[in-house]
Fold this sequence. Notes:
By secondary structure, this protein is of the alpha+beta class. Helix content is 31%, strand content 28%.
Amino acid sequence: MNIIECSPIKPGGSASGGKKDFNRASRNSGLRLELAPDIVFIRPVLNLMLSFLKEPIPGEKIEQLRKTLTNALLLLFKCCDRSKTEERLEVKLELCGPEGGIRVKLVNHGIPLILKEHENKGLRYDPQFDLVKNITLENLGRKGQQLTLEIKTDRELQENHLNPETRAADANTLETGTEAEITIRPIELEEAAELSQLFYNIYGYRYINEFVYYPEKVREMLLAGRLYSIVASLPGKGLIGNLSLLRWNETPLVLEPCLGLVDPAVNSRGVFGKIVEKVLEEAKKKNYQYLFFDFVTNHDYSQRLLSKYKACDLAIYIGCQSSEAQAKLSTLGIGTDPDEMDRYSILYSVIPGVKHPFGKKVTLPQKLGEMLSFLLEPLNMEWIPESRFQQLPEGGEFKLELKGAQKSVSYDLLKPGEEAAKAVAADFAKRLKDGYMYASVDVPLNEQGLGRLCELFSRNGFFVSGFVPYKNSRELAFRFQAIAPAKVAFGQIKLYNENAKKLLEIIKADYERNCLI
């Protein structure tokens, strides 16, 4: 649904048009319309909007304004994908300044970027928008974008009118090239907005990392060296794929190849494989300690692709992500969505950059060591049995992180202890009543009492997950996990490597022994 709001501002009032002022004016006007995104509504809505203007405007300018607003609305409708249920449009009309200047704000929840930054000038010179003196675009992340059109006064129309030849010359610079060979290269800073557009085109607003919808944040991360992106581009289409290296730790250097996507229109052309190859080549130049990956297990393409680079599978997070928070895999053409449970599972893997990324030895309870030592062997690690007499300290300390969109909570057992472990179990029991469905608990392996923790967490519905780097450091942690009330669809979890398949069987058996349902 589209929401149209008209808010008059008294002549001579503030031109800031802030949200507070708009809301106050909107309450005073008492006007709020909801309508479907259909062009048949444009004319009656515009008539109603224009009736709210408090200053008399010449008939000729009214018609120009009507045409400008119509073209702006049509632009939104043309770009809007109606298949996305969150689509919504807010249109705000403001009158401000002694000369009756008009500001029109289009807050569109259907697409993140109607305009690329370099198209701002081109749209302003479009004959359809002759009445517009300034166009600004504010990105609102998952809420979409706000396109603001400032309308020229009569005097500005007479003094600053651009001739057709000037407009034509500028418009030609926007023409796109013809299709050619796909280019794999580092991203340019000015392409940050185009990258945001690509994410929306493929995922809508469901991509798990919201920062991709803010071009200014992407640019900032690129400039700071925290993000390094390799893109695929095609003349005439722009960016069609991406994979980035995200820096999580400087010492040791830990990188995550992430933000991977390819336009479905070029699927089966080997584009993603070429991007991955280029990204890993660049990663080697940086002398990393290890790279880490998390794959959605409903499809195994990425797993198969990375297996030739000797990725080591370490953990599987069963049902850790809500499908509501990301695009459907079937829509992307990369897999099927779970039928028996509305949640996705994640496979966690690493590619070591050194021979011993987490040291040479680690201490584990006898049962865990025998059960999971095959995960440590590719990391060139040995395990030492924990003493049967090793005690878990009484107190302990933990911190938690809530992930509301995923309906999950993560616990970090900073200092393992009896009281802290019981508090974690009790806290998750309360979270279940608030609608949370998944929990993970990370326990650093350099602390004592892991055997007792296994016993305690098992009694409270937690089951094994595997190993993870503790806070992206050189140390490993053991991860427990729990899920309820959703029942796990183990049959829909697709894995490629034998170690991952073996780990899944262990997790399934432990889940069936300890699960909360």
